[in-house]
Amino acid sequence: MPSRSRPQPPPAYPASLVVYAVCQAKRAVMLRMLVDTGATYTMIPRRAALALGLDPIAADRHIPIITASAVEYVPLLRVPIFRCVGLELRNLKVACHDLPAESAVEGLLGLTVLQHVEPFRQFQRSLQSFLVHE
Amino acid sequence: MYRRTTQPIEAIRRRYTREWLLIAIDEMDDATTTPLRGRLLAHSKDRDEIYDCLLRTRAQLPLVTYSEDRPPKGYAVAF
């Protein structure tokens, strides 16, 4: 007999897409980040950058980022050492922007990191035949 | 008072509901960058308070994390 309970909404994202990352500059900070294949850059919060000894206000470059609801201009900083999902990347460019507290994560793991992750590259290859090519 | 002894990270997270946590990491799995054990430095419903503590702490590797795995029930995301 079919269940009469109301269907539950899906979770906002699976917990398996949340990873830990270590950012290191003058100091080191560890953050929980969401894997986001729709994000160009990896994103960290402004005050995490300050804790690392990086100054978002003094950033050489600000870039426009297209979010779900607006275009935001955010500082682009270089993190000297970035460790995540078994990778260690040097001088990684990260966007500096605060996600809403409700998001339950502190940052986004974007394509600038994911392009180095073999399972993600395999995923891209497996989709190749379905992709729209110019 | 916070416990001075090191504890599993997941045990610390489970003790709190919808709070932001600042934890000094003592042990980490380097292969996966997963924190294993640490000491709780601060907890708050207000994320800004945790960042205030982060800017003051002398811990070698502080972790900022939320006690929950996901956003509140019923929320969806589009970043």
Distinctive features:
heterodimer, A: 134 residues, alpha/beta, Cathepsin D, subunit A, domain 1, B: 79 residues, alpha+beta, four-stranded antiparallel beta sheet, 2 helices, 20% helix
Protein architecture, described:
The complex is a heterodimer of chains A (134) and B (79). Chain A is of the alpha/beta class and 134 residues long. Chain A has one domain: Cathepsin D, subunit A, domain 1, CATH 2.40.70.10. Chain A is built from three helices and seven strands; from the N terminus they run E-E-E-H-E-E-E-E-H-H. Chain A has helices spanning 46-52, 111-114, 118-127; strands spanning 18-24, 28-35, 42-44, 61-66, 71-84, 87-96, 107-109. In chain A, strands 1, 2, 3, 4, 5, 6 and 7 form a seven-stranded mixed β-sheet that branches. In chain A, strand 1 and strand 2 form a beta hairpin. The model of chain A has no long low-confidence stretch (mean pLDDT 91). Chain B has helices at 9-14, 47-56, and strands at 7-8, 20-29, 34-44, 62-66. In chain B, strands 1-3-2-4 form a four-stranded antiparallel β-sheet. Chain B starts with 6 loop residues before the first strand and ends in a 13-residue tail after the last strand. Chain A binds chain B through residues 9-13, 15, 18-22, 28-32, 34, 36, 38-39, 45, 47-48, 50-51, 67-68, 83-86, 99, 101-106, 108, and chain B through 20, 25, 28, 31-35, 47, 51, 54-55, 60-66, 68-79.
Shape of chain A: globular
What is the radius of gyration of chain A? 17 Å
Distance between the termini of chain A: 50 Å
Number of helices of chain A: 3
Strand content of chain B: 35-45%
| Oligomeric state of the chains present here | heterodimer
Tell me the fraction of residues in β-strands of chain A, as a range.
Answer: 35-45%
Structural class of chain A: alpha/beta
- How many structural domains does the protein architecture of chain A include? 1
H/E element order of chain B: EHEEHE
Rg of Cα set of chain B: 13 Å
Number of helices of chain B: 2
The rough form of chain B would be described as: globular
- Helices and strands of chain A, in order, run as EEEHEEEEHH
Q: What is the CATH architecture assignment of chain A? A: Beta Barrel
Distance between the termini of chain B: 37 Å
Summarize the biggest pleated sheet of chain A: 7 strands, mixed
Instruction: Give the integer mean of the pLDDT values of chain A.
Output: 91
The major beta sheet of chain B can be summarized as: 4 strands, antiparallel
Strand order of the largest sheet of chain B: 1-3-2-4
